[in-house]
Every structure is written in structure tokens, then in C-alpha cells.
Design brief:
seven-stranded mixed β-sheet, about 30% helix, globular
Length: about 300
């Protein structure tokens, strides 16, 4: 089992780089047991997570009985995550929802997914700030109002290029930033579940969380001194694993796994309970069958 010892406080970024104030298992490749990873450089922050794993017969059980792992380091890791969230222009986002909701509703849903994702992320105690990589002016305006920092998608060369660019922009101002790429289409995201994922990821140089289907990726992390090396796209879970990233195997983090690309995905997110932006978009644009009797599956949001 692992115990997390949390201290209070929210970090504030300087004006260089990202100027925003925000809140502050795993299967490893084969390695010799007892070999520890180097402790990463200290990140300037007022919050720390004390990771105290208990290893039995070479295996470690994560929080709340989650997956067993080998070769997990024993260390105290400073945590102050900056999330990098890529967002396509809304005119091209979530094209597979158009047949269900229509083109205008599809755009509104894509914007709502991003708003609920960013709002929940900023409410997470393990998150210092959120940088959204996008060229969509409407989305940029709405997400800035929530507290996100906008990074223009200068490469304009797809998802992985946008993530690499966003990560580079953050580390230009803060070279010791701990980074995590997070999908923008997690409308049911819960801050507490995201905190569990990030706190567990803090044990490894790079780690990733597979999506609900088990083939994609919803989160990819890199500690200070380690590049994200994003490989999103088809079969990204296997590609991230092959790149040396540790797979995060935690139970009860469905809200961090449930990204929405199709009508079926949206029903699954509603069953978990979506945030207020998506709930409103559903009421206005999408029939609510399958929401488990709730008003579009809306959940109370703790901010």
C-alpha cells in the first residue's frame, strides 16, 4: 500500500513562461530489484507528496488496493504539476459526434468538454496550472476565463507536435517543471481521481494512463529532466509502453480514463456524471437517454 502525505498551499508561477496561479499500479520494464531511480530536481512549490510504498515480495500495491508494480522507487517527490492540454480548432474537433448532434452542437460539445476538463484540472490539489495549446480564439477566451494559460499552436502539425511545443514553452520559463499531457475531452473528470493518478505518476520519470478502451492514452507525464515524448494516436497505449513510460494501473479513476470521441463515449461519460458545461450542452443539443435518470448525467462539481 502507498500513503500520501499532503501539505497545503497553491504554487504561483512567475511571469516568465506560464504566468498563472493555480492549485496545487504501474507496470515497469524489467530491471534489477532494489535499483532506485535518481531523485528529480526540486520543483519550486509549497506542496509535497510523500510517497511511502510498502513492497511485498518485490511487488507494490498502489493506493486503495490498485495495481501491483515492480521496481518502484522509495522517495519523497516534490509535486507541482503543469498540465498541457491540446485542443483542436472547434471547427474540426469531435467530428464523429456530428452525426449524433449536428455540426453546431458538435462544436459546442467540444468546447464544453474542454471547459469541464480544465475546470476540474484546476481544482485538483496536485495541479499547479494548466496550459492549453490551441489556435481557436473562442475556446481560448473561454478557457482563459477559467484560469488556463493559452499557448498558440505554432507548429500546426497535429496533436503530438502541439504537446511537444506546449511542453517546451512551459519549460522555457520553468526548466524544472513537472509536466503531464492531458486530453481535452474528459467531461466527467473528477479532481480527486486526477490527483491520485498524478501522485502515483510522480514516482516515475515518465508514466501514462490508458483510456477506458485500453488502447489509447488520456494522460502522459514527465518529471523534471524528462521529456514527455508524446506518441498519441492509434494504439498509443502500446506505443507509450514501448517507449519506456510506466503504465499507471489504478482502480477507481474512470473519470480520468473516459475520453469522448463517439456518441457511445458520451453516454459512458454521462453515466459517470459530467461537469456543468457539458451538462448544459447536452440539455440544449443532445437527447439525454442513457443518463441514468439524472439531468444529462450532471454531477455536483467541487471547486
Amino acid at each position: 500500500m502507498a500513503r500520501a502525505c499532503r501539505g497545503g498551499g497553491r504554487g504561483t508561477l512567475g511571469t516568465a513562461g506560464v504566468g498563472l496561479t493555480g492549485a496545487s499500479g504501474v507496470r515497469s520494464p524489467r530491471r534489477a530489484r532494489g535499483k532506485s531511480h535518481p531523485v528529480p530536481p526540486t520543483v519550486s512549490s509549497t506542496r509535497f507528496v510523500c510517497v511511502c510504498p510498502v513492497t511485498v515480495a518485490g511487488r507494490l500495491t498502489g493506493p486503495r488496493g490498485a495495481g501491483e508494480n515492480e521496481g518502484v522507487q522509495r522517495q519523497v517527490t516534490p509535486v507541482a504539476w503543469t498540465l498541457v492540454v491540446p485542443l483542436k480548432p472547434l471547427a474540426r474537433a469531435k467530428s464523429r459526434l456530428a452525426a449524433t448532434a449536428g455540426d453546431q452542437a458538435r462544436r459546442r460539445l467540444a468546447a464544453a468538454f474542454a471547459q469541464d476538463t480544465v475546470a476540474a484540472a484546476l481544482a485538483c490539489t496536485s495541479v499547479r496550472d494548466v496550459a492549453v495549446v490551441t489556435d481557436d480564439q473562442h475556446a481560448a477566451h473561454e478557457l482563459t476565463a477559467l484560469g488556463a494559460h493559452i499557448v498558440p499552436d505554432a507548429p500546426g502539425a497535429g496533436l503530438n507536435a502541439a504537446l511537444a511545443h506546449g511542453a517546451a514553452e512551459v519549460r522555457t520559463g520553468r526548466p524544472a517543471a513537472a509536466l503531464a499531457a492531458l486530453n481535452a475531452d474528459l467531461p466527467a473528470l473528477r479532481p480527486q481521481e486526477l490527483a491520485r493518478v498524478l501522485d502515483f505518476a510522480a514516482r516515475f520519470p515518465r508514466a501514462y494512463l490508458a483510456d477506458a478502451a485500453g488502447t489509447g492514452t488520456t494522460l502522459l507525464s514527465g518529471l523534471p529532466g524528462h521529456a514527455l515524448r508524446p506518441l498519441f494516436g492509434p494504439a498509443s497505449s502500446a506505443r507509450h509502453r514501448a517507449s519506456g513510460a510506466m503504465e499507471i494501473l489504478l482502480a477507481d479513476v474512470d473519470s480520468v480514463r473516459t475520453d469522448v470521441d463517439t456518441a457511445e463515449d458520451l453516454l459512458a461519460a454521462r453515466a459517470l456524471g459530467v461537469g456543468p458545461f457539458t451538462a448544459r450542452a447536452c440539455r440544449e443539443d443532445v437527447p439525454c437517454e442513457g443518463a441514468g435518470g439524472r439531468s444529462c448525467g450532471q454531477r455536483p462539481v467541487t471547486l
